[in-house]
Amino acid sequence: MTYLSDIEIAQACKMRPITEVAKTAGIADDYLEQYGKYKAKVGLSLLNDSNRRDGHLILVTAITPTPAGEGKTTTTIGLADGLKRIGKNTVVALREPSLGPVFGIKGGAAGGGYAQVVPMEDINLHFTGDFHAIGAANNLLAAMLDNHIQQGNALGIDPRKITWKRCVDMNDRQLRFVVDGLGGKANGTPREDGFDITVASEIMAVLCLSSSISDLKARLARIIVGYTYDDKPVTCADLKAQGAMAALLKDALKPNLVQTLEGTPAFVHGGPFANIAHGCNSVTATKMALKLGDYAVTEAGFGADLGAEKFLDIKCRMASLTPSAVVVVATVRALKMHGGLAKTELANENLTALEAGIPNLLRHVSNIKNVYGLPCVVAVNRFPTDTDREVEFIIEKCRALGVNVVLSTVWAEGGKGGEALAREVVRLCEEEKPDFRFSYEIDATIEEKIEAVVRRIYGGDGINILPAAAKQIRQLAALGFDKVPVCIAKTQYSFSDDPTKLGAPEHFTVTVKNVKVSAGAGFLVVLTGDIMTMPGLPKVPAAERIDVDDNGVIHGLF
């Protein structure tokens, strides 16, 4: 049987004009700023002008990712289309894809099969220019910082203590560590420097957590770019850069409106990675989806130990959001990989491997129910090779935790394959009430917050703080940054900080190597394991397969 590729499915879709999609969502023309025929930005004043009561917030998360794939974004879109098919007014809120994965190893991030957001090519390539604006604002701050030093350094900034990096939205390992300012006095001060990928920039986190232009400027002003010779922090406000940066970001702050293949309104806005940042779309997009839909469906990056933890402990805390229900996405194939099977062996029934791997799913589900107090359903993305016995095994194990399992076939069937999941989500919203709580108290010490996440969410025995990190924690506490959330940067491939520990590992500690403040975003970034903030391209980049013909039609994007 021949299957169409994602891009072929997307290009065959007859899209509705974005004005019609906006009308479906109840967005008046006054709020709409069109970017061509099929995408638009929506003015932030909509949030203040609407008196409509917020709908139900549905979070889609997943098990710990494997090379077998889970389909979290695909499920999010298919669920929204499924809710629409059963008569529910629904809006989706997703992150924007980074060009790094698009041209690297992962490909696009607009869903898959018959559960996609469109125009798929635009969303994956440049879109409305938000990431370029973020990169420009980031690099303006870097330029003003180095210029201040060049022009006499009135603030006494120590070039050895600069923490602000430049960024580019591309996987480019060559830029991880650089020496710049060479060529003599007229060309700057020589120093060690480096680049982050744009999604790792604090500006991305700031944009996604800001609620207005004034909030954006206040957050930008608080960003710490380095320290003086006597160890005092230097901020963006000290360099008088926040106004110009906000001017670059004023349009990027507005959520982008597109549609699913089935015409469901979708906001696609912001894109921090969940392994190095907080991994969710913007607060403004989520709040707009809640204001416009009876059901707002959103997703958080990577496994629930990363994206969902940060969505709940950081985003929900800051934005005063309470999810009505959580969907945990899993596949039989991925669970068998967690049980030790090689990717080449996943097509064969293997209950032994499934039994060894299913604790990964059960730990994530238990965290959502028992740590965060939220109603939960497991969505199993069914593959043709999955046997009835394997699926029944998952159903029995989840039933023991009081959680239902629903089969999802949204990749192959779109919204029709998400109707059963949609009905279970509606049931959870109508019959079960969330008892939402965080995994740690904000007034706990920095060490206590990190340890709470490691013990309660990861299932570890505790933390090992290296001397350099311990010194940073003491300094940050002295500066008053001990009463903010923690954003733990760790591998996405394991509950632990060791990517080889699959399943649900026990009796491990997490090593804290570095702790830095993202004062504008309002959280501490805790670096564990070997975390790269600038990825590299693989041996055969996805970019080698991407092309465009004489008619402007893009091929090879998946």
Provide the helix percentage. 25-40%
Quaternary organisation: single chain
Could you give the distance between the termini?
19 Å
Q: Output the number of helix runs.
A: 19
Biggest sheet descriptor: 12 strands, mixed
Please state the average pLDDT score: 94
DSSP summary, beta strand count = 25
Notes on the protein architecture:
The chain is of the alpha/beta class and about 550 residues long. About 35% of the residues lie in helices and about 20% in strands. It has 19 helices and 25 strands. The strands form 6 sheets. Strands 1, 2, 3, 4, 5, 6, 14, 15, 16, 17, 18 and 19 form a 12-stranded mixed beta sheet that branches. Helix 9 crosses helix 10 (about 240-250) and helix 14 (about 350-370) packs parallel to helix 15 (about 390-400). The protein is globular and about 70 Å long.
Give a summary of the structure in a few sentences:
The protein has 558 residues and is an alpha/beta fold.
What's the topology here?
Elements: H1 6-12, H2 18-25, E1 32-34, E2 40-42, H3 45-49, E3 56-62, H4 72-85, E4 90-94, H5 99-103, E5 111-112, E6 115-118, H6 120-124, H7 130-150, E7 157-162, E8 166-168, E9 178-180, E10 191-193, E11 195-197, H8 202-209, H9 213-222, E12 224-228, E13 233-235, H10 242-249, E14 256-260, E15 265-268, H11 283-292, E16 295-299, H12 304-319, E17 325-330, H13 332-338, H14 351-371, E18 376-381, H15 388-399, E19 404-408, H16 410-413, H17 419-431, H18 446-458, E20 462-465, H19 467-478, E21 486-489, E22 509-518, E23 523-528, E24 547-548, E25 554-555
Parallel strand pairs: 3-16, 3-17, 4-15, 4-16, 8-11, 17-18, 18-19, 20-22, 21-23
Antiparallel strand pairs: 1-2, 2-14, 5-6, 6-14, 7-12, 9-10, 12-13, 14-15, 22-23, 24-25
Helix pairs in contact: 4-17, 7-8, 7-10, 9-10, 13-14, 14-15
